[in-house]
Design the sequence.
């Protein structure tokens, strides 16, 4: 079964709105939590990542919020733009080379 | 620009055929991975390799095998293709000691008819 559970499966947001994607995990050995962005016809690319020693990380309009006690983390896309329309995957790792991925969320930003 | 290159963008094969998917990386990465991507299931790890001639099973290895004879090349083999192996296959590589350098290829869309 999937070690990282991701929701929702898809979402639609208006331009300028906030997109929120949630992930949950059970394995307390996970110590690295990246998010990947995938455009049609391309492979996933690293977007932003966090380690559990911090509760939040922000890079531009993208923010990861991390709740260690709840074993949950989320991606917030602020001021969503049509160019953000893509599939987003959360992932987790308990070592430094193998990732377990969530099921993915397709984000559509309407102009 | 560093790259992971997958030899075919689209493949159509017949049931029972032996299928080879090739992946080459130019980053001198030790680790290489094969994932399959299916709607609603995300990316599932088939096999990975952390060194030449070394391989480990991932979460869904049944029906697949791999070969890594050179550091830069990692091949996925479907011994006898079946329709339930129709999927997008993604190759990735990373450097030992970090997942930060996880780089994916553009994928091979395999259809088994």
Sequence:
């Amino acid at each position: 079964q999937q070690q990282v559970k991701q929701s929702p499966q898809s979402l639609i947001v208006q331009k300028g709105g906030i997109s929120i994607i949630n992930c949950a995990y059970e394995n307390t050995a996970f110590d690295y939590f990246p998010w990947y962005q995938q455009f049609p016809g391309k492979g996933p690319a690293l977007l932003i990542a966090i380690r559990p020693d911090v509760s939040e990380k922000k890079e531009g309009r993208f923010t990861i919020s991390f709740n260690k006690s709840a074993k949950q983390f989320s991606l917030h896309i602020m001021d969503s733009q049509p160019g953000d329309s893509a599939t987003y995957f959360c992932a987790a790792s308990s070592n430094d080379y193998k990732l377990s991925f969530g099921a993915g969320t397709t984000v559509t930003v309407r102009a | 620009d560093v790259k992971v290159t997958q030899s075919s963008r689209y493949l159509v094969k017949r049931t029972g055929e032996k299928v080879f998917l090739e992946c080459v990386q130019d980053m001198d990465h030790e680790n290489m991975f094969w994932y399959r991507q299916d709607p609603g299931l995300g990316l599932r790890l088939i096999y990975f390799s952390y060194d030449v001639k070394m391989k480990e099973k991932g979460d869904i290895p049944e029906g697949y095998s791999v070969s890594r004879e050179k550091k830069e090349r990692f091949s996925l083999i479907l011994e006898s293709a079946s329709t339930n192996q129709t999927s997008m296959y993604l190759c990735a590589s990373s450097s030992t000691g970090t997942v930060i350098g996880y780089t994916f290829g553009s994928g091979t869309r395999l259809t088994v008819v």
